[in-house]
Amino acid sequence: MTSTLGFAILAVLARGPRTGYDLAAVMRRPVSYFWTAGHSQIHTELQKLRAARLIDYETEHGPGPQDKKIYRLTDDGREALRDWVTEPPRERPERDELVLKTYAAWLAEPGLVRRMFADQLARHEERLAQYERDAASFGSPPAFGDPGFGNYATLRCGLSYERHRADWCRWMIAQLGDGG
Amino acid sequence: MTSTLGFAILAVLARGPRTGYDLAAVMRRPVSYFWTAGHSQIHTELQKLRAARLIDYETEHGPGPQDKKIYRLTDDGREALRDWVTEPPRERPERDELVLKTYAAWLAEPGLVRRMFADQLARHEERLAQYERDAASFGSPPAFGDPGFGNYATLRCGLSYERHRADWCRWMIAQLGDGG
DNA sequence: AATCTCATGTAAGCTGTTACATGATTTA
DNA sequence: TAAATCATGTAACAGCTTACATGAGATT
Question: Å from A150 (CA) to C20 (C1')?
Fold first, then answer.
C-alpha cells in the first residue's frame, strides 16, 4: 500500500520529471503549503514507488559517485494518483503543541505566555505576507484542469489558515492584558 | 527528555488525579481540541513520567488482575509543566492530506472532487455545531489563572479553525461549479 | 585550498497506531 | 449467562527526524 508520502511524491512528479535531490529541494518547503519531507524519506519512498511500478527513471551520469536518476510517473502511477485524489482523506487527529500549551497556560506567568504568543503572531504575520506575495503573482485564477489550480487553491487554504491563526494569537494577547 | 505526549498527560493531571484508564478516556477525544492519545501510548508514557519523578501514584484494589493506580503530579511535575508552557513550541511541519489532494485535484473528475469536499464540509459543520454547544455552556469567560481559561481559549481556537476549514471547503465547492 | 551545490544512499531512534493479552465487577 | 465497563499492560509495525556516509564538479 502506497503511503501518503508516496502520493505526495507522485503529485509533484505529475507536474514533471525530477531527480530525488530535486524532489527533496521542492519538498523541503511545504508542497501545497501543507506537506513536507526530508531527503532520506524521499529516497527510500522512491524505491518503494518504483517497486510498485508507479514511477520509473532514466539514468544520466554525474555529478557524484552514483549516477543521477530522473524519475517520472508511469501510466499506472498517474492512474493511482488520480484515484487517490478523490478518496476521502483518512482523518488523523490534529496535534497542536501551541494549543496544548494554552490548555495549561493558567499555571504560568501571563507575561511569559503573552511573549510566546507575540512571537507566534510574528511568525504567522511573516508567512501571511509571503503568501500574499505568492497570491499577487497569480494573474487570473487558474481553471480547474490546469495544474496551477492546485497551487492556487492550496495557497487560498494557507492564507485562510494563517489568518485564523494570527487572529487567535491576537485574541490571546488581548486576553492577557498589558501587565506582566 | 519528556515528550509532548508526556506534557499532555501532565496538563490533564494538573487538573486532578486520575487512573491511566481514566486518562485514556479523556484523551480519546482531543484534549484542548488538538491533542489525542491511545491507551497503550498513555500507559508506557506514565511509566516514563514516573521514572522521571514528575508523577507518582497510589494503588487501590480492583477491579481486574492488577491494582488500580491513581496518578497525580509531583511538585517537580508541576514545575516542569509550568516551565514547558511558556517555551516556544517546536514547529513541526503541517501535514494535511486534504490539501495535498487538492494540489493534485486537477487530474481528477470535478464531480468526484466536489463530492469529497461536500463530505468534508459536512464534518466540519458537525464539529462546529458541537463546539458552539460547548461554547454556550460557558457562562462568562473564565479568567486567566482559572483552569477553565484553558478550556475556553482552546475552544476558541477550535471554533476559529473549523470556520476557516468550512469556509475553504465552501470556496472549493463553488469553484467546482454544479456540473457532474 | 576551501567551500558550496549536486547527488545518492543507510541507520538509529522516537512517535504513534493497531493488535494482542488478561481478567474482575457490574449490568442487562 | 452474556456483554459492557473498568483496568492494566506488551508487541509489531508504520512514519518521520536526525545523523552518518560518500564523492564529483563548480565556485570563491
Answer: 43
Distance of alpha carbon A69 from alpha carbon A17, whole angstroms: 10
Q: Averaged over A133-140, what is the pLDDT?
A: 95
- pLDDT given at position A179: 60
Parse chain B into domains and list their residue ranges. 4-85, 97-175
φ and ψ of A54, to 5 deg: -90, -20
For B41 and C19, how far is CA from C1' in angstroms? 13
**Distance, CA of B115 to CA of B111 (rounded, Å):** 6
Reported confidence tier of residue B178, pLDDT bands at 50, 70, 90: confident
Q: What would the pLDDT profile of B61-70 be if each residue is shown by its tens digit?
A: 877 677 899 9
Nearest to A161, CA basis, from B162, B135, B14:
B162
pLDDT digits (tens, 9 = 90+) for B39-55: 999 999 999 999 999 99
Residue A57 β-bridge partners? A71
CA–CA distances in Å: residue A136 to residues A101, A133, A152: 35, 5, 11
CA closest to C1' of D14 belongs to: A3
Taking a C-beta distance cutoff of 8 angstroms, is the pair A13, A71 a contact?
yes
Nearest nucleotide by C1' from A41 CA? D16
Q: In what order do the strands lie in the sheet with B68-73?
A: B18-19, B68-73, B55-60
Does the model's pTM come out above 0.85? yes
Instruction: Work out if B91's Cβ lies within 7 angstroms of strand D.
Output: no
CATH assignment of B4-85? 1.10.10.10
